[in-house]
Write a structure and sequence with these properties.
Strand order of the largest sheet: 1-2-3-5-4
CATH architecture of the largest domain: Beta Barrel
Order of helices and strands: EEEHEEHHHHHHH
Helix content: 40-55%
Largest sheet: 5 strands, mixed, barrel
CATH topology of the largest domain: OB fold (Dihydrolipoamide Acetyltransferase, E2P)
Mean pLDDT: 84
CATH superfamily of the largest domain: Nucleic acid-binding proteins
Number of domains: 2
Number of helices: 8
Number of strands: 5
Radius of gyration: 21 Å
Structural class: alpha+beta
Shape: globular
Length: 192
């Protein structure tokens, strides 16, 4: 449907904003924490969106600062009994990493502190999402390790020591994910 919107912020309220995209104002519901990170009214912004048509046939757009936030929202609403509004309340209560950590450790207390999420619903979220989150995290870690190993082998062929390469790879910023970019950054660091 609508994957993202980019436009000027016309209006900001507690739980939504109005985004002017080519002279059309879209009402986009956002988590209050995300709204506080957005620029002021009159400035441009890009939001990833989730389109939801309610039972009353009233469509709603939910907006997110980044793709990671949108994907986690979609994961939350995949749990039976958790709708978009409930997922937004969960996201408003804690950071994504804290929620994932609570799910992975089976910590019902953190999840049940969110308005509208009791102990039973918290347990349901944990049961339904624990394996999905662990599988995604394992895949990301495996991909990262494979790219590090490939970069390491390429750098060894260039004559650098494995110990120096590994140390430098560990210190790279997390946003450097691709093998080629890792190699370039390590070469830059080792050349200093």
């Amino acid at each position: 449907m609508i994957f993202y919107l980019e436009g000027k912020i016309e209006l900001k309220r507690d739980d939504f904003l109005v985004l002017d995209v080519n002279n059309v104002g879209y009402k986009v519901f956002c988590v209050s924490l995300s709204l506080s990170k957005l620029p002021r009214e009159g400035e441009k912004v890009k939001l990833f969106t989730y389109y939801y048509n309610t039972r009353e046939n009233i469509p709603k757009l939910y907006g997110f600062l980044d793709l990671k936030e949108l994907e986690f929202f979609e994961l939350l609403i995949s749990v039976s009994g958790i709708g978009p509004k409930g997922a937004m309340e969960i996201l408003a209560g804690r950071s994504i990493e804290e929620i994932k950590s609570a799910i992975n450790s089976g910590d019902k207390k953190i999840l049940s502190q969110v308005a509208g999420v009791g102990e039973k619903k918290a347990q349901k979220i944990i049961l339904e999402l624990e394996s999905k989150i662990k599988t995604k995290e394992k895949t990301k870690i495996k991909d990262s390790l494979e790219k590090n190993l490939a970069a390491e082998e390429a750098l060894i062929k260039l004559g650098y020591s494995r110990q120096k390469i590994r140390k430098t790879l560990k210190e790279l910023p997390l946003d450097i994910k691709e093998e080629e970019a890792k190699i370039k950054e390590v070469l830059k660091q080792l050349g200093k």
